[in-house]
Amino acid sequence: MKSDRKTIVGLIQMSCTEDPGENLLKCVGHIEEAARMGANIVSTQELFRSKYFCQTTQHDNFSLAEPIPGPTTKALSKVARGRRIVIVASLFERRAPGLFHNTAAVINANGDLLGSYRKMHIPDDGQSHEGFYFTPGDLGFKSFETRFGKLGILIGWDQWSPEAARVTALTGAQILFVPTAIGWDPPMKETDGETQHSAWEAMLRSHAIANGVYVAVVNRVGYEAPSSIDYPPALRDGAGIEFWGQTFMADPIGRVLSKASATEEKVLMTECDFSKNVVQRTHWPYLRDRRIDAYGDIGKRVID
């Protein structure tokens, strides 16, 4: 993979329904659209086959999980092979009885499954009960050598960790893909919405700047109410998540090259010139000047 090569990335921002089959068909249609527009690498949003079920704890939701390889990777491998594109697909992985992960599968342009990244940081709060569903990832931070570039992946909550972005970049990633499902708590949107979104975008742009990589962030869009049968109907009013969309691509100096809206579905297309990674890293040599001899304490919970 030459460092001066260019590639075109397509990011699929979409809303989801209760029907996994319907969501898959919609996403495949968007992937085909991206391929027709010249995409070389296409990424889905986090858990694109369903609504964001982690708002509540409901055992029935485990039926949404599937193995990897499995039916979705089989369907997407066919698209990747036919269109000669690379696909990053975020899935609810059923690894073994009682063992599940939030996983991104990487499919090369010949249709081969290159491997997977399992989400490392698992949130558990009022709207994201992911700890109920997912075991933390055990594959580590890594990158994948594809036909159109070397890519790394973080998922959702991983995006707030500078350590995760740095280690992934050190494995050689030229683009950091971040499938996510993030939005506003509707009652807080008016008072805190702008601040929350600004912090999110700034954090992800900082990963690009600090590591000299492209950062491709793909979010879902639309409002999703809690759907658990155990969730009292009287409490659903004003609850849920309004996903803020605004999928974007940042270059290695942190400039936002392209951005989707907060409300509409979008196939966001962006060209990445990997020579800019080299320019950024030689003109702003943060990686060169790292004091790797002085960072031993980073592995501690707290420094006394």
The helix-and-strand class reads: alpha/beta
Query: Which architecture name does CATH use?
Result: 4-Layer Sandwich
- Kindly provide the name of the CATH class: Alpha Beta
Q: How far is it from the N-terminal to the C-terminal residue, by CA?
A: 45 Å
**CATH fourth-tier homologous superfamily:** Carbon-nitrogen hydrolase
Ranges where pLDDT stays below 50 over 5 or more residues in a row are 229-236
Approximate helicity band: 25-40%
Globally, the shape reads globular
- The main sheet orders its strands as 5-4-3-2-1-15
Query: What count of helical segments does DSSP give?
Result: 7
Overall pLDDT confidence: 94
CATH topology: Nitrilase/N-carbamoyl-D-aminoacid amidohydrolase
Write down the Rg: 19 Å
Fraction of residues in β-strands = 25-35%
The H-and-E topology, N to C, reads as EHEHEEEHEEHEEHEEHEEEEH
Write down how many β-strands occur, each being a DSSP E stretch of 2 or more residues. 15
Summarize the main sheet: 6 strands, mixed
User: Can you tell me the number of structural domains?
Assistant: 1
